[in-house]
UniProtKB/TrEMBL annotation:
The entry's keywords: ATP-binding, Exonuclease, Hydrolase, Nuclease, Nucleotide-binding
Residue ranges of every copy of the AAA+ ATPase domain listed in the record: 644-998
UniProt-annotated stretches for the region Disordered: 1-21
The protein's name: Exonuclease
GO molecular function term, any single one: DNA helicase activity
Lineage: Bacteria, Pseudomonadati, Pseudomonadota, Alphaproteobacteria, Acetobacterales
InterPro entries in UniProt: AAA+_ATPase, Coronavir_polyprotein_1ab, P-loop_NTPase, UvrD-like_helicase_C
Amino acid sequence: MTRSSQIAPFASKGKAGNRKRWGSGSIARGLLACHSSTFDCGSRIRGHMTTHITARLAWHDDGWNGAICRKPERNTYCVGCKSYPGDVIARERDLALEQRLAGRAASKLEGYVPPCSYSYNAFGLDEAPAAANPPDFFFGGATRHKWSLPPATVSTWPYEAMYSDEVRQSGYLDNDIRKDLVNKFYKPIEDDCPNNLIFYYVNYSNPLSEDNAPRYVMIGVSRITQVSEERRYENVNENVGKRYAGGMIWARDISSAYPEEGVRLPYHRYRDDLETLESFAVIPERAALCKYGSKHLSDDDAIGLLEQFLAKVRLLKASGDISEDWNIREAWLLKSIAGLWKHRGLYPGLLTTLTVIGAVQLIDTAKALCIKQGHAAAHAAIFGALETGDFRGLATVLTPAESKKISRSWLLLEDGARLLLRDILPRLELSAEAMAAIASKQWTEGGVEVRPEEIIKNPYLLCELYCGEDASDRIPWGTIDRGVLPSPDVGAPLAGIDYNDAGRFRALCVEHLRQEPKHNFRLARDLIVEIAQRMERLPAWKQATFSERYFDVDANILSGALTLQSTDEGQIVYLKSVFEDERYVEEVLQRLVTRPSIELRRPLIMADWNSWVHKSGSMLAQQGGADYRDATREQAGICERLFLRPLSVVTGAAGTGKTTVIQALIHAVRRSEGEGANILVLAPTGKAADRAREVLEDAKLQRVETVTVHSFLARHGWLNDNLTFKRRGGKLAEVGTLVLDEASMLDLELAAALMRAVNWQTVRRLILVGDANQLPPIGRGRVFADVIRWLSTNYPESFGRLTINLRQLLTRARGEGSAIVELSRLFILQDIEITTDGKDDWDQPTSLAEEKLIERIHAGGLVDRDLDVVYWDDPQRLADTLIGAIETKMRGGGSDDKGRPDQLWRTSLERDPTAFQILTPHRGEMHGVEALNEACQTHIADFVISRVGAIDGITLNDKVIQICNRPKSNPIWAYDNNTREKCRVEIFNGEIGIVRNFGFDNRLWETIRTGYGPRLKRFAVQFTRKPGITVGYGKDVPHGGRYLRNERVEDNLELAYAVSIHKAQGSEFAHTFVIIPASHNRPVSAELIYTALTRASRHCTLLIERDITSLLNARRRENAQTPQINSSMFGYLHLAKQQLLERRSWYESGKIHEALTGDMLRSKSEVIIANLLHERGIPFRYEQPLFAGDGTIKLPDFTVTIAGRTFFWEHLGMLDQTNYAEDWAAKEAWYQRWFPGQLVTTKESGRLSRDAEGLVTKLSSAA
């Protein structure tokens, strides 16, 4: 046996899997021993060190002060699907009563116990009532338990402990084992009280979290003073007591010393100021600390969190916040950090290291040595004994045979692994799994691809390279930093590492760049500012003054993880992997585009293209006339040109026929190369792949492989077990024609992974298809926008832009209106740097025709047959307004039928759950996803829930959406009604369906009818794209295995009456209801509105808050998302303007920053005028809505104030066109009627600068 075989990489949980992957070495045995009794092992590993805890809270708008929120209707987060505990608050909250009791303290609640009682008294100063209702599956076998919470007390729930593998050892959920595990979880908390800390946080249902960026938020911290005894429900009958651990309530109360000790961040004071909230919010560096309710924390974890709190307390103090004496809070934090360092010691990972190497017999000895002689002495004695095999001085009970075996296993490890496990890893607070992965020769399993000697020289490599169970499972920089540079009171730094060490600086840069979710690079000076702020939050003894000079002096060392480039704007910094990804994508595409044209094996003529794009049996073919012929001619021409190109892009707005072009191109491949031609269609999401598959089948294109990019990568070995991408080592796929649909959703990392996975020598053509006007990808970069800019400018023969909107032609042919398409065009904003055919591609100024459409939108009501506009002012009444609009559409608009809402919605959604869809930009607030879903469910399903209950907030007939991917590697069990067999199916994030009961659960309807009978414990979902398939969720769902199977609803599904616009990207709905809020904190973007509008295939209802200003602000260039992403592909540096990224200090809608005229205006002529006004110091606003006395509206190009007088400046560009001249005459008359003497104009000409200057001089003189 070689030494390397003694260490096997950690890969997956489960004892059988671990044994197989870890092998039989000492590290494998140690990990298996630990996993055989997870929590017992964990408590033994922590030894004499303090055990702290996290506590999950439901969001509270008034600081968790033991009172009802002052405006309970506004707190939509506490009833969100990611609230706590579960869906209890959503099910049990009496909002009408809470509104009457709003703001009242716990002592004045008139017997009412708010369902947020588990968390609302976290920082309360008095006792507060709490209660827990027994779950539905007790079936009346127990009753409600009430108790009194002491001041500053929360009820904590250790989900992770309750759902460990041990609970199901017998094939079913054993609640007695769960009880034992819960008690074991709380035992060290009780033992360490009052020396341990409790850290409060909220789950994803919070104001700082969105669908595309979910975040935990830390609320506060205090010292634990008491842990309650276990509690039970009242009147527990024998059956419930036997099956459910005596009717035990799993939650336990933990009280703290607040307000005398601790910190509560003042989120409640800045509830309506999102930017300020963001500035002092604590987002945990390790998200894993906040998973699964309550978790144990080590001293090292606690120090890291306290340092984060310390930074924010100092920020609040500096900002002038007077809600607390922050000096006192700062002093407490500093004192607590110092105390924790003493507990932590120099070797917090010593006991874990012994577990990893299989020397668990030495743990008790090591504990005793740590307590008696200190960490350093214990470390030296333990490893000295391992090296020599002489354990006599350790006072152990080991037999000679055991001593020899342990020492031999240690000595068999490779030298590098032994040095890591002896000198580096014991100084770090890491999990046993992470240590095993790091010490393993199989470096790539943990994401670490360097030799042990390199880690010993620079331990900061671990936070740069390690990646555990998923992409978020990283080792934070702070964890390594505390091990390398401990408190001087504890010990000395690791040899050779200074506070300004280049490796320390590099790792800090890497972490900050990695946390940047969008940009491909950062300006070095901005990065240094962030790092300086990070240093300020550290204790003084470990601060370093890093500067831009370090990038030059340490360039050689930094180059191992960073790439530095000099530009006219200053030095820019990339993650090396990101820079390489940009270059790799460039290289592949440049090689393809410079290949010679493809030689066809069989000829194709224009008649072929026309036959494929012209849908002869369609309504458009029959009624579209010349317009349809022009559209198909455009499509056929693009197809003919692009088919010969090895690389091509097909783009166009929604409804322009991109799908038709894909179909035609695939028809052509088969005609030219034969039916067996190698064609692959990829899409970034499962939902998009499903849709692409359907449209190909509709076109009679069978057997075209259509899968997600991730599935393709996994099949060819380019995904690690943790679902991160490999950069080498996979199999190259051989493809003939590769079509990438919805390419605008492709982020840089995914694009590069795809490029690496293909053997490009076998590829004849790559076709990218997408709509760059939609939202940019959720991940890093703007790949599709960059490809469009490059191809359209340099290789126009490879670029095809569809311009004629067939959807608009079709709605006109049907007599259904065309306002959706016309309005969506207002939100197409070009990057001003992007050029087409060598011409400047500036957006055009708002035309008079567009102003007419804006006026119709402003008037509200029926804009066209396909578009209605409803204005709303009161957020509390929005849901009623929305539901009324939906039900009017469901009834066809001509019926006053007041039948039961549940019947109306069930009938309307039965055939197509996506027929009526609410879309909103945000998850929270009263206009957000969670509040609107709750309102719809209450309106429709309240009665059903009262009779049969709900599972994680979902009940029968609810409309739901899958929130995670269940691909082939992790399918879900379903029932195929066609074959009458159980089967595994793939379900993808974003699929929508309706909840039904299983046929064998028909007694539920008897319960609904009579109120007596079984309650809901499982259900089936019929997804839109899975006809005949019902997918099971809940407890004891049908499946093909031996034991009962549970599919947690909370992990898979959410309500889907309303979904976020981000979630809807790539989908299509017959009728949409789009919410446009007037939010200054979260301005909506042009891409967001465009995406929302173009989801509707037949009709859209816009629900706009207050007035049209909310909609018009989204058109402003400064609110666009794609131009504000840094990238540098194809030789062009796209740098987002810093003034736009940090505009809080100056920005108001319509205000133009002097340095940003080219980024905020729509035409060069307008830039000339704006620059002149800036030079003269004349204040102005751009396209500021102007309302007349009769309620009509115009958008003057500039609203100018000179010497106290206001003028409206219109720049006229097309007076030579008859229609424009007529429209301008009407607009001019409007100004003369309502604002006489205030209109000034300039005309488009070569002397615009001189004319504008003369006008300004004239106005200044007159004033």
